[in-house]
Amino acid sequence: xGLESQTKVCATAVIPSWNRRGLLVTLLENLKGQTTGxxxxxxxxxxxxxxxxxxxxxxxxxxxxxPTNLGxxxxxxxxxxxTRCEWVAILNNDVTLxxxxxxxxxxxxxxxxxxxxxxxxxxxxNVIDGTFDLVARSGCAWxxxxxxxxxxxxNRARKIFMAPMTAALFRRGLFEEIGGLDEQFGSYLEDVDxxxxxxxxxRGGVYVPEAVAHHLGSATSGRWHSDTVRLIARNxxxxxxxxxxxxxxxxxxxxxxxxGLVACRHGxxxxxxxxxxxxxxxxxxxxxxxxxxxxxxxxxxxxxxxxFELESETGMDRYWRVYFWLSRR
Length: 329
Fold this sequence. Notes:
By secondary structure, the protein is α/β, with parallel strands linked by helices.
């Protein structure tokens, strides 16, 4: 039996939002066309100054107002705390969903705790924006398929342990069991951290390629905006400090330095360095040790192997080609 049964499933959409009122209006209008409707739409406004909160209320959403921009993780946590539905869809304000997105993602079989669908680029529906997430032993994550041509590879349903919170569905009880998003991450990689905690707790999800969304992509700050690069660089350090204390040091150094070279190529070398320094200066995160550290290593080894297999099948990106050569995979 799928996640949907004869008893109507209660589902809430939680939308963290910061400015970009036009994007929010488009999404809220889009949600009204779902073949299976959301029981409630909650917009968590991160201190917007462009009237986003007011227009969301006018369009029927319940708005939770935060006094200032507390980051994506804090906004998601506040939104989840406001709903009592069994299922929570977390949606970026720059996505739109195909009309049957919720219907298809609810109908997936099994005892999944969460589900992610195929996310296409809003600018070109033949290009993958993302599917599910994997993370390497370096602490650097890959949004699988990002930037690649849509192909049969991305039409295969599979079990996953990380769902990108661009557009994904979660059982609300999972947040009660695992805990909310780690607000120290703020924005970026907070969903990867949550996925690691799910994997360590033995909780998994499914990838449902028939559930399709379209993503504008970093519409709020820009993909290679200085703040984006700084936060990703910082949070790569936080992931390493939190989970990789008992892991081999070389993949961490190789992967994160290589990512720095990519940032430099986009003119963001200084932002990268600032992020790394900030990650080192933040209060020390407790890292896993002992048998739990062995479990982390096993999760990362399996995840990295899947990165290698998918990259080999779809055309190895330069970053991963060099990383796998350096890490001797």
